[in-house]
Write a structure and sequence with these properties.
The complex is a heterodimer of chains A (345) and B (502). Helices cover 72% and strands 4% of the residues of chain A. Chain A is mainly alpha-helical. The longest helix of chain A has 28 residues, at 98-125. Residues 341-345 of chain A have low confidence and may be disordered. Chain B has 502 residues and is α/β, with parallel strands linked by helices. Chain B has three domains: 9-245, P-loop containing nucleotide triphosphate hydrolases (Rossmann fold); 246-337 and 423-502, P-loop containing nucleotide triphosphate hydrolases (Rossmann fold, 3-Layer(aba) Sandwich), CATH 3.40.50; 349-421, no CATH class. Classes of the chains: A mainly alpha (345), B alpha/beta (502). Chains A and B meet through helix 9 and helix 10 of A and helix 11, helix 12 and helix 13 of B.
Chain lengths: 345, 502
Amino acid sequence: MNGLMKHHLFWPLVVLAALLLFNLLYSPDFFQLVMRDGHLYGSLIDILNFGSPLILVAIGMTLVIATKGIDLSVGSVVAISGAMACLTISEGADQQAGGLVLTAVGMSLGLSLVLGLWNGFLVAGAGIQPIIATLILMVAGRGIAQLITGGQIITVTSPAYEYIGAGSLFALPFSIFIVIAMYIAALLLTRKTALGLFIESVGCNPKASRLAGIRSGLVTVAVYMFCGLCAGIAGLILSSNVSSADGNNAGLWYELDAILAVVIGGTSLNGGRFYLTGTLVGALIIQTLTTTIYMIGVSPEITLVVKAFVVLAVCLIQSESFRKKLVHRWKTRRYPAEREVTRHV
Amino acid sequence: MLNERQPILQMRRIHKHFPGVKALSGVDFRLFPGEVHALMGENGAGKSTLIKVLTGVYSIDEGHVELEGQELIVRSPLEAQAAGISTVYQEVNLCPNLSVAENIFIGREPRRLGRILWKEMNQKAADLLQERLQLHIDVTQPLDTYSVAVQQLVAIARALNISAKVLILDEPTSSLDRNEVEQLFRIMNNLKKEGLSILFVTHFLDQVYEISDRITILRNGEFVGEYMAQELPRIELVAKMIGKDLRLLEELPTLAEGEGSAAKEVMLEASGLGKKGAIEPFDLSIHRGEVVGLAGLLGSGRTEIARLLFAADRPDQGTLLAEGEGVATPRQAITQGIAFCSENRKTEGIIGDLSVRENIILALQATRGWYQTISRKRQEEIADEYIRMLNIHPNDPEQLIKNLSGGNQQKVLLARWLLTEPKLLILDEPTRGIDIGAKAEIQKLVLTLSQKGMSVLFISSELEEVLRVSNRVAVLRDRRKVTEIADKELNQQNVMQAIAGG
């Protein structure tokens, strides 16, 4: 039991279970799944479907944070990628054509990789602190997205493109499969090759890593490129889901939710050890929370406040030192004097 | 001059504790008027701590300080300044973008009705520099238009202007070249004649004898003694700093066997390799199967040489060839078969949050690249093998390395490098802070490895250790390689003599 509680996934899973339990009590049909026209419908499916862009972005963010970095530009990359794809499709002669959609997807993902490369270059090559380096693209990226869309919302009518974010496979939303594929790819890349070891080593002690012969610059660039790619795919899902690209609002504040998901999942902002599965659970917690807040009808003005409080509570529950302190206070509640003496034990 | 002069400053039985460390225990220090008093000791001997308690940066746990016969208690550097104790630090603590005059008078500008009298201030600054320091410069120019040496003098001028009775110079010469040092010494001599007392801290032995009247030696936070400079031979100064009695040393047999190294092929060759501010250009070649030791006081440039040989730092001049090929980055050095165990185990060695197994395979995996993964099974075999071979405790390969003791961390790092099968192993202080048993094991390992044909560059503060394992010892003094001692000449006496120089 003790070993179980020490596992890094224990508290995230407890929180997720608690959220789901709350929903079950609040609205008993929360777990209901309905089959209609060969598609599954239900709140759980919604959480997975709407949560998939966030999970993708958070997976990329996990690796960046593991190198003691941070990528604030993911939200902008989401917007740019969606804008690029929609622009390419809207300019095509036949918006239905599969080749056109493939070109659009290829161009967006290529562009996302380039943006990731830019971030990686600023961090590893120019030596700018990650938070500043990616802030540049976070701000400029919105402008780039607007430039691509010409300041308008581009709408496309292409069932083939729509399939990415709104289509379904085996009765489940297609986006879920994309997420699973990227999650497995990230796991294989980091755990079956030495890349994970290098990332953790660079994040934990860059100086020692350099002296051990690791090309830390290359590792850093690769990680930012992967993060860019993840954000790019998330952008495709988001824009294809609504068949339009909004340079201004697509992916707004995604970076913050993604960072939160990574931290809730157990990866430290100090770099080093990272937990992809933890991030997955963390992103699901955030998406479930968002859905719950909408469902119980919190008035729109204060949804963010409610969310913030829940997130604060989640972070505190996960903090081991906070839990210890709480237990200690409870145990010594009748003996304030003893509390003073034993506080640091 | 009077024979029975009273010291202007007297510190008695000063104690200072830091959590876990006794930084100063019962240190005495006296400073006489019109004297330059050198405070000597290796790094960590307590020189800086003593200066910091004197100038109010740290509090004093126990002991008395008297200035001109009055008990002196200072709680901040400002109070110390007000009492007449001014300090000029190694790194110049001035504002480079303000003018020279502003730097001298900042906070004490001559004013009338709240208006700064610029003319008067500039005139005063120029006069001050000319009269007391013989320095003729334009005081309205920003400070950073002048060399570090001039900046240092400006800092001294500022200190003098704040009514200094005692001037503390903390390593003022470390970033100055020969001519600048001479200029500084001329000025110090003048100030001395004016009756100023100067406390002088330096690492350079030559300079101590050039300028100081009196020497106080500290070792490990303890007071070793106070001597007149003329009465203390250099070699004795060194012996007292590192705490070895020479007569005792002579009786010790040397264990190093002199082997002819000339015949063997050259593994690594540095010629004219140097880096400004770190080490003056040096030549060094290491042959196959040879153990070369580096001896010298702390801060004499030992680590700097090691880092240059591993290409961890970029040299400004000279060439470095490993088996005839150039080396420019640590990665290249590793592929050329060079391994480097840094003296800073924590910051440059271990990856704290990773396991012992991961720390061991790290360098080998790095040379193989990310794709050619060492299988988990092989990793575990390797870890088990080295844990057994080097007696690493605890013998759990999944333990995080930060939870191990210093000696065991060191062994893990050795394992990391041995696994890459290096041709040359550079060990910088491999036995620092580890217990006697582990020390002996590491020394034994070095000897076994060299018999198997591995070259080793061995750096240690403990002279006996260097002599025990080395075939040849290169001696460093004041960031310069002064000599090499090999074969029959290799004994403690000769090495000490070379370290002391002069």
